[in-house]
Write a structure and sequence with these properties.
4 strands; cell membrane; Na+/H+ antiporter like fold; transmembrane; NhaA; sodium; about 425 residues; 18 helices; single chain; two-stranded parallel sheet; ion transport
Length: about 425
């Protein structure tokens, strides 16, 4: 009976262990999202204050050795270095989901994957449609509105104080993680200007040693960190964006304990161990610091803001995030239901899916990163930032309106998901699906 329900139901509850794990991740990301919002507001305030020159001077301070092109500005260190930590966690989370999580079932994995694909294809098409006749390299920014920022989205959820059901939160988290993987693939394939084969081949050596070490359950930081940093530095020197190294290193970490280490029943694998340790660093430090250095655009008052948004590049970004993301995520989810003849979970409505799809239009961290890679012109870079910020704010407001309209229903679902009459630590709604 349970398996039949899972076969025909979209966005149903997963297993209790996976639900509890996702809830823990979401709590950490929510805190990180609030820090990200604070860092963004601080950067915007400073960059538009009489002391804006000091903000630019701080961002442009150069530190680091000349070797391997590592004498970089603080802003570049944040984008290339700190975001590699973020993408390392993305790699861990994605592998964990598909190896040991609920998404190891292809039927459950199909929906967030296809929704993420739709949430990238449609915004890119919208951007291209707006900038098709712009010329002067404007189409280079086609990938900017394709990314969803899960930390920012969860921060919005915390601010509007909705009680979004765990199934929808899990859907949002999973499609955002897949979204990030697709984004870093786009960065590697389309935003690598000058590939240096030598450093890339050399990077395979420390990467292979790192892989062997983690597969042998070696977790000593003094072994793994130098290997990871060396891999990152060589990938950076190769011309491929260094965040790619973060994802690959995350993929190398084993999820399930080997038989020699006691087997799956003996406890969590190394990936979960690393995730517990590194996610707080990523969410609480790496991403907010990147946001601080990336979001500081000088708007120039209302006239400057209007002028920036009149640029087709900014318009394309706003349209892609607000319209493209909503249409792509919702449309592909609906098509999955239509062609598989699946039914939405009885507790949910298609309006809930639309709200999450609109929330997916909050593109910040990776959108700003791609914008920085796509355009080297300072004016265009500022217009990209204005477009990303404006699109994310508009998507936030629209999502908040939709979510608040369903908040009473969400409260009822949340109360049901928390009820534990028998006191066994597992909510009653999960007892019937727990083996």
């Amino acid at each position: 009976m349970t398996s039949a329900r899972r076969t025909t139901t979209l966005l149903s509850r997963g297993t209790w262990p996976e639900t509890a794990r996702i809830a823990e991740i979401l709590r950490k990301e929510t805190v990180g999202g609030i820090l990200l919002l604070v860092a963004t507001v601080l950067a915007l305030t400073w960059a538009n204050s009489p002391w804006s020159d000091s903000y630019d001077a701080l961002r442009d301070v150069e530190i680091g050795p000349e070797a391997l092109h590592l004498h970089l500005t603080l802003g570049t260190w944040a984008a290339d270095g700190l975001l590699a930590i973020f993408f390392f966690v993305v790699g861990l989370e994605l592998k964990r989901e598909f190896v040991a999580g609920d998404l190891r079932d292809p039927r459950r994995a199909a929906l967030p994957i296809l929704a993420a694909v739709g949430g990238m294809i449609v915004p890119a098409l919208v951007y291209v449609a707006v900038n098709f006749t712009t010329g002067d390299g404007a189409l280079d920014g086609w990938a900017i509105p394709t990314a969803t920022d899960i930390a920012f989205a969860l921060a919005v959820l915390a601010v509007v104080s909705t009680h979004l059901p765990i199934a929808l939160r899990t859907f949002l988290l999973t499609l955002a993680v897949v979204d990030d993987l697709l984004a870093v693939t786009i960065i590697a394939l389309f935003y690598t200007a000058d590939l240096q084969v030598g450093p890339l081949l050399l990077a395979a050596i420390p990467f292979a040693l790192f892989t062997v070490a983690v597969q042998r359950r070696i977790s000593s930081w003094w072994i793994l960190v130098p290997l990871a940093v060396t891999t990152w530095a060589l990938v950076h020197a190769s011309g491929i964006h260094a965040t790619v190294a973060g994802v690959l290193l995350g993929f190398a970490v084993p999820v399930v304990r080997s038989l020699a280490a006691g087997g799956p029943e003996a406890g969590p694998g190394l990936a979960e161990h690393f995730e517990h340790r590194i996610r707080p660093i990523s969410a609480g430090f790496a991403v907010p610091v990147f946001a601080f250095f990336a979001a500081g655009v000088t708007v120039g008052g209302l006239d400057g803001f209007v002028e920036a948004l009149s640029d087709p590049i900014a318009l394309g970004i706003v349209s892609g995030l607000v319209v493209g993301k909503a249409v792509g995520i919702f449309g592909f989810t609906y098509l999955v239901a239509r062609f598989t003849k699946a039914q939405l979970d009885s507790d949910l409505r298609w309006l809930d899916v639309l709200a999450v799809a609109v929330l997916g239009g909050i593109g910040f961290t990776v959108s700003l990163l791609i914008g920085d890679l796509a355009f080297s012109d300072e004016l265009r870079d500022e217009h990209v930032k204005v477009g990303v910020l404006a699109g994310s704010v508009i998507a936030s407001v629209l999502a908040a309106v939709l979510l608040r309209s369903r908040n009473r229903a969400y409260r009822r679902i949340e109360a049901m998901e928390e009820r534990d009459a028998d006191g066994d630590g597992v909510p009653d709604v999960y007892d019937e699906t727990t083996d």
